[in-house]
Design a protein that fits this description.
InterPro entries: Transposase_mutator. It holds the Pfam family Transposase_mut. This is Mutator family transposase. It is a single chain. The protein has 132 residues and is α+β, with helices and mostly antiparallel strands. It has two domains: 78 residues, no CATH class; 54 residues, no CATH class. The chain has a two-stranded antiparallel ribbon. Strand 1 and strand 2 form a beta hairpin. The longest helix is centred in the N-terminal third of the chain and has 23 residues. The protein is flat.
Length: 132
């Protein structure tokens, strides 16, 4: 089925307005991107085939997203989008460590993140205590 960009935009916009809609769209999008990236990888990987999925989680907009991370039989495929998300996580961890190293408490660091990034202190705690 082919959907026009206008219709797709309307569907996504309407879905985002629902409770948890933004996280669901992020989850759908990340899963679709990884699945397509694996398909492209397998086109050029002779003798290699898809080998299902493994579960994974990344931090979305205020909650963890459940991902289906595609695998290949030879273990050669790793989605680029996960590399970007892990880099973002590593940078956040460095920033939080630096803030703690300067003597800020968890509450103070949470307030700083809330002011700068509109994150709640709970979100900061969750993202720094979770590893993808």
């Amino acid at each position: 089925m082919i959907i026009s960009k206008v219709l797709l935009n309307d569907l996504i916009t309407n879905h985002i307005k629902q409770d948890n809609g933004l996280n669901e769209v992020l989850e759908f999008t990340l899963n679709a991107m990884m699945k397509h990236e694996r398909a492209l990888h397998l086109e050029s990987a002779e003798g290699n085939k898809s080998n299902g999925y493994r579960p994974g989680r990344v931090y979305g907009h205020g909650k963890l997203l459940e991902l289906r991370i595609p695998r290949d039989r030879n273990g050669e495929f790793y989605p680029k989008v996960l590399t970007l998300l892990r880099s973002q996580q590593a940078e956040t961890d460095k920033l939080v460590s630096a803030l703690y190293g300067q003597g800020l408490t968890q509450r103070q660091a949470g307030e700083l993140f809330e002011n700068l990034l509109a994150w709640s202190p709970l979100q900061l705690f969750c993202i720094t205590s979770f590893r993808a």
